[in-house]
């Protein structure tokens, strides 16, 4: 049996295979109320039928002005929580484990009335200048994360991923180019981590389930956190109770990285984090080739693989992967789907 398609225990989470659907915003909330629609049931349901081991629901905002656009999902009220509960139950019925990514867009919250950020530096000239967060705003936003986490738990999710990547609010605190604060939330690495740390530590007061974080390991621009600093940060995250680090890159700056983008280009970052901690990591980025995924798992470069655009293109990605890996034991959804493979 391939590692890719065989079961695995990731911290507290038993998964039927090592394929993760990473969070991908769909901008499908046309009523702009943050509530999941029939689209989300069909979209995630199709991937659950496709046997994805862990589906991480797209970046879901913890506050109205934390949305990237007004078409994003939200989790700041009970109506949103109730629909999420129905969505999670549906995906469980279809056999998937379900997580949710909780986030705040910070200075990249394009539709926000007044975006907030670690420092008052706009993303580019088309974005509004964010308000540098006061201590009260910091406490309120941390509380928004806590409240959304409680709603996600009540909705029955199997894991929660804190969005610390791609230049959104938490990433803005972690990164030296976007955090120019002079108080205890800026300056040293430890200070820049404080906003994130306080959220994680508070969540760990009441939640013992699976808690992940997504990080952007490179800003493709100097100054940035060094590899050693990211490894130190990963060790702090582990000590503070994070169960898995989902390793991505980029998104902090409005610049296209001057580097070749090729299959697996982000994997070395995941491996370098894996080497520094004892918790598992997830790698992502152009990993559509099942043979490549299997090689990365067999050589211990990552513990899980996330397939984003590959799963948008092909809900049947896992069955196709099984064929390519000559995996006879792979179970499709039911006998009728099995007949569809013949
Ligand atoms: C349409 C789309 C929406 C995305 N939305 C999110 C998101 O909500 N949160 C996030 O962390 N990453 C998001 N991403 C990044 C993906 O999770 C993933 O890291 C990226 O697509 C690279 O993986 P891939 O090459 O397998 O697609 C998005 C990507 C796409 C294509």
From TrEMBL:
The keyword Repeat does not apply. Keywords: Flavoprotein, FMN, NADP, Oxidoreductase. Its cofactor is FMN. InterPro entries: Aldolase_TIM (IPR013785), OxRdtase_FMN_N (IPR001155), YqjM-like (IPR044152). It comes from the Bacteria. Residues 4-326 form the NADH:flavin oxidoreductase/NADH oxidase N-terminal domain. The keyword NADP applies. GO terms for molecular function: FMN binding; NADP binding; NADPH dehydrogenase activity. PANTHER family: NADPH DEHYDROGENASE C23G7.10C-RELATED (PTHR43303). This is NADPH dehydrogenase.
């Amino acid at each position: 049996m391939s590692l890719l398609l065989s079961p695995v225990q990731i911290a507290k989470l038993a998964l039927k295979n090592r394929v993760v659907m990473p969070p991908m915003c769909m901008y499908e909330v046309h009523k702009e109320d943050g509530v999941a629609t029939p689209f989300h049931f069909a979209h995630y349901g199709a991937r659950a039928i496709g046997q994805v081991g862990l589906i991480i629901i797209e970046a879901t905002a913890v506050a109205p002005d934390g949305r990237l656009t007004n078409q994003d999902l939200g989790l700041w009220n009970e109506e949103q929580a109730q629909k999420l509960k129905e969505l999670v139950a549906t995906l469980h019925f279809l056999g998937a484990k379900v997580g949710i990514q909780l986030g705040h867009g910070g200075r990249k919250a394009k539709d926000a009335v007044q975006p907030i950020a670690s420092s008052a530096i706009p993303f580019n000239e088309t974005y509004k200048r964010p308000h540098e967060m006061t201590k009260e705003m910091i406490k309120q936003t941390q509380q928004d994360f806590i409240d959304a986490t409680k709603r996600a738990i009540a909705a029955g999710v199997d894991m929660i991923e804190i969005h610390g990547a791609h230049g959104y609010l938490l990433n803005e605190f972690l990164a030296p180019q976007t955090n120019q604060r002079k108080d205890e939330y800026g300056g040293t690495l430890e200070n820049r981590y404080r906003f994130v740390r306080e959220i994680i530590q508070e969540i760990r007061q009441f939640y013992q389930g699976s808690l992940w974080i997504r990080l952007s390991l490179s800003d493709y621009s100097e100054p940035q956190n060094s590899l050693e600093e990211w490894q130190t940060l990963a060790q702090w995250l582990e000590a503070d109770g994070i169960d898995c680090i989902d390793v991505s890159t980029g998104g902090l700056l409005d610049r296209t990285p001057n580097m070749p983008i090729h299959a697996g280009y982000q994997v070395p970052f995941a491996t370098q984090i894996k080497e520094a901690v004892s918790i598992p990591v997830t790698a992502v980025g152009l990993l559509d080739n099942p043979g490549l995924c299997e090689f990365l798992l067999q050589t211990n470069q990552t513990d899980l693989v996330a397939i984003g655009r590959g799963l948008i293109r092909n809900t049947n990605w896992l069955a196709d992967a099984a064929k390519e890996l000559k995996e006879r034991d792979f179970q499709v959804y039911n006998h009728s789907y099995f007949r569809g493979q013949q």
